[in-house]
Amino acid sequence: MKKTAGQDRSITAKWRPATRAIRGGTWRSDMGETSEAIFMTSGYSYDDAASVAARFAGEEQGMTYSRLQNPTVQMLEERIALLEGAPACRVQASGMAAMTAALLCQLSAGDHVVAAKAAFGSCRWLVDNLLPRFGIEGTVVDSRDVDAWDRAIKPNTKVFFFETPANPTLDIVDLERVCAIAKQEAITTVVDNAFATSALQRPMDFGADVVAYSATKMMDGQGRVLAGAVCGSEDFINNKLLPFQRNTGPNLSPFNAWVVLKGMETLDLRIRRQSENAMTVGRFLEGRVPKMLHPGLESHPQHALAMKQMKDCGPIFSIVLDGGREQAHALLDGLELIDISNNIGDSRSLMCHPASTTHHSVGAEAREDMGVPEGMLRLNVGLEDPDDLIEDLDRALTAAGL
Question: Which of 38, 282, 283, 393 sits a CA distance of 20 to 30 A from 241?
Fold first, then answer.
């Protein structure tokens, strides 16, 4: 493989984000390809027995096995790290593989985690169900209350785990203040940044230690593949995450890595246009529904904090209807253009009912605690003409009696 500017940190450090998204982490083979190559291989061959021994011992640079290194996968890791402002990154097979690895690689029986009660359903399931099976205690708090994080700390607290904006309540965590509390107590902050990506928000700039992603969402951006990523210090990635990943195997395929690489080339363009569309659609809905949860709108109680931390609002927000599940389902059934789908970050507009989809597994009691009522609908605004989306929603709202 030939070294390119995309591999030289002394050069890439000077680049602005849009340039890094196109050229960051680029390697080239002797063929001189301009687009990243897909290295579809599970293993590698060696010139002699001494070389393979040296590679496995860490005494010689080079690939050993695609569960550990793959050129296409490593290009994606370098690009994500560059955009995140992180020293290192490892990608995983899915977003939930990334969340699980980011937690389990550093926690042991007897440890304690403080987590936001408002979270993606599977993330909340990790705290409520999986971690306790391994003797890891969890406490959930209202993530909007900075003092609640401080009050929840115990002598064995090792991790703060939260999303901002949260899925699907759009709660905003004060990154600077919460991360400062964690640092004072030597607690590691793990932030799920999937709703924003580094294009809109970089948690490490506010003191976060670890940033985790479902790259399935906006990094791919077109609903094609599953992927996840974890960013952090070289010590965390190489000495905590890598041993866990090497021996448990939640690895990303080279093909999926290549697809995400292509998606990241247009990430900034897509997410900013989708954010603009979301504001247009959000302003229309604000006058038609009982409750809006959209941090880009002045009506959101944490709007000022969101705009302090984020460059834009993002394409995702929620509404809450008074008529519960029946009215929410009626609205979904009245849609003609917007798809009923539980994905987010897609270039297509998608809408779902979290209580019966993304948060079904956590149970009714946990949903109530999280602030996910039966009348809530989550909307991912895509790249379509916003006037077409508004016409579709207007028709569906009427059909649902609104």
Answer: 38
- Judge whether 177 and 206 are in contact, CB under 8 Å: no
Helix axes 254-264, 71-84, angle to 10 degrees: 40
Cα–Cα distance between 157 and 287 in angstroms, integer? 44
> pLDDT tens across 74-117, in order?
999 999 999 999 999 999 999 999 999 999 999 999 999 999 99
On whether both 251 and 390 belong to a single domain, the answer is no
Domain check: are 178 and 284 in the same one? no
Strand partners, 88: 232
- Domain residue limits at 187: 5-264
- Both 313 and 363 in one domain: the answer is yes
**What global pTM score does this model have?**
0.93
240-245 CB contacts, 8 Å cutoff, 24+ apart: 240/105, 240/106, 241/90, 241/101, 241/102, 241/105, 242/90, 243/105, 244/101, 244/104, 244/105, 245/90, 245/92, 245/101, 245/105
Residue 56: which pLDDT band, with cuts at 50, 70 and 90?
confident
SS3 content of the chain, % helix, strand, coil (to 5): 45, 15, 40
Residue that finishes a domain, picked among 220, 247, 264: 264
Assign residue 124 the CATH number of its domain.
Answer: 3.40.640.10
Q: Measured between alpha carbons, how far is 256 from 262 in angstroms, rounded to an integer?
A: 10
Rg (CA), the chain: 22
Rounded Cα–Cα distance for residues 36 and 29 (Å): 9
Residue 163 and residue 282 in one domain: no
Nearest Cα neighbor of 276 from 382, 137, 183 is 382
d(C-alpha 281, C-alpha 272), whole Å = 14
With a CB cutoff of 8 Å and minimum separation 6, the contacts of 321 are: 289, 290, 327, 328, 331, 375, 376, 377, 400, 402
**Alpha-carbon span 160 to 146, nearest angstrom:** 12
Number of domains in the chain: 2
In angstroms, the CA 274 to CA 266 distance is 12
Instruction: Mark 212-231 as b/e (b = at least 16 C-beta within 10 Å).
Output: bbbbbbbbbbbbebbbbbbb
